[in-house]
Amino acid sequence: MPTTALRVELGRRSGPGVPDADASALLLVGGKVRSDADFVFYNQAAHSSGAVRHEGKRETGGTVTDTLFVDLARVEPAVETVILAASADGGTFGQVPGLHIEVKDAARGATVARFDSTGATVETAFVLGEFYRRQGAWKFRAVGQGYDTGLHGLATDYGITVDEPQQPAPPAPAAPPPPAAPPVTAAPPAPQAPPVSLSKVTLTKAAPSVSLTKQGGTSGVMRVNLNWQVRKQFSGWAAKLGRPTALHNDLDLDLCALYELADGSKGVIQSLGNAFGALRHPPYIHLDGDDRTGAVDSGENLTINLDHQRAFRRILVFVTIYEGARSFADLHATVTLSPQHGAPIDFSLDECTVPSTVCALALITHTGNDLIVQREARYLVPERGVSPQRTVDHAYGWGMNWTPGRK
């Protein structure tokens, strides 16, 4: 490897009936992970060392790319190998055209290595390549070995403890109670990390909604994250951090939410006007901050308190361009909703082909006893002199009064 800051892109062609493919990485010592923390994938997006980070998906020109950022300089000395893998969701890799892995210099964008996988059949997980140490230097090797047991089989083969669905045990036959034993004082068991959950829900145009109630995700907090990558707005990538360096003005995207509560009160959550909301009292929605990087481990974040779900009637999560661009045309964004309990929900935004400065992302509605998340991914074009906020309000019939504001 000519440099240590690398961007690893798992690519495939898109099309009707093509299964989704997810990138993952495992950091190995002696051929196994040291703990579940050495597994980086969509549910565990960054390694604690900062050496590997999952950056999410984008679609350009009929090709879907899932990206990992790898900084080999930050890989701990004990780690000998970084496995680069893929798992298929909704089919086998024999149904995935154009499957490949490409390693790029993160600072310059130049391709360092590429491997095209052409022999897949029934496999649902693939080790496409690996970084390994040899005589003090890092090298890349193409692998191309598959599993027909999916991400579960791949993970457990390298030592990951996977959260298994619990099956009810058959009732035991009645037995007489055992004789009483003298009390024994024992030390409490050492706390253990929970097993890794591999479940997720990806919303698409064909399947745009999911019930949080049926997923068991209606308590605790839910984090809504927007992360993005911008190609044409930036001159290159900072080698150390792997983040964009702006040519002129930084792109500033603002994650926002319109809310309507069960008592009829309405409002907006946004950084404009410092309307950051509150988590422990109405509206039970809080904007964490104002981010300009778009990185998957930060980005723009909203937190929703689902312990008060009955207070909600509907919540519309949307994003506006505050400055730095005139449309979303070069935005490659992923939206992830992570309930404290239940599977994470994600979806990618479609290519923007209109001069839009506001995009409706997701609509959360509480109807009866059901809490539904609906993928919107709807680009809106404000009329001249009309703000993005007023535009999205009109499109969804919120009926609020708007005045100018600033950060």
Explain what you see.
The protein is globular and about 65 Å long. The chain is 5% helix and 43% strand. The protein is mainly beta and 407 residues long. The two termini are 44 Å apart. The protein has two domains: 5-157, sav2460 like domains (Lipoxygenase-1); 201-396, sav2460 like domains (Lipoxygenase-1, Sandwich), CATH 2.60.60. The model is unreliable at 231-249 and 292-297 (pLDDT under 50).
Summarize the structure.
The protein has helices at 150-157, 212-215, 388-396; strands at residues 5-13, 20-28, 39-40, 52-60, 63-71, 81-89, 100-105, 111-116, 125-134, 137-147, 201-202, 209-211, 221-230, 234-237, 244-246, 252-261, 266-269, 277-278, 285-287, 300-305, 312-323, 331-339, 345-348, 358-367, 370-380. It folds into two domains: 5-157, Sandwich (Lipoxygenase-1); 201-396, sav2460 like domains (Lipoxygenase-1, Sandwich), CATH 2.60.60.30.
Map the helices and strands.
Blueprint: E1 5-13, E2 20-28, E3 39-40, E4 52-60, E5 63-71, E6 81-89, E7 100-105, E8 111-116, E9 125-134, E10 137-147, H1 150-157, E11 201-202, E12 209-211, H2 212-215, E13 221-230, E14 234-237, E15 244-246, E16 252-261, E17 266-269, E18 277-278, E19 285-287, E20 300-305, E21 312-323, E22 331-339, E23 345-348, E24 358-367, E25 370-380, H3 388-396
Parallel strand pairs: 11-23
Antiparallel strand pairs: 1-5, 1-7, 2-3, 2-6, 4-5, 6-9, 7-8, 9-10, 12-25, 13-20, 13-22, 14-15, 16-17, 16-21, 18-19, 19-20, 21-24, 22-23, 24-25
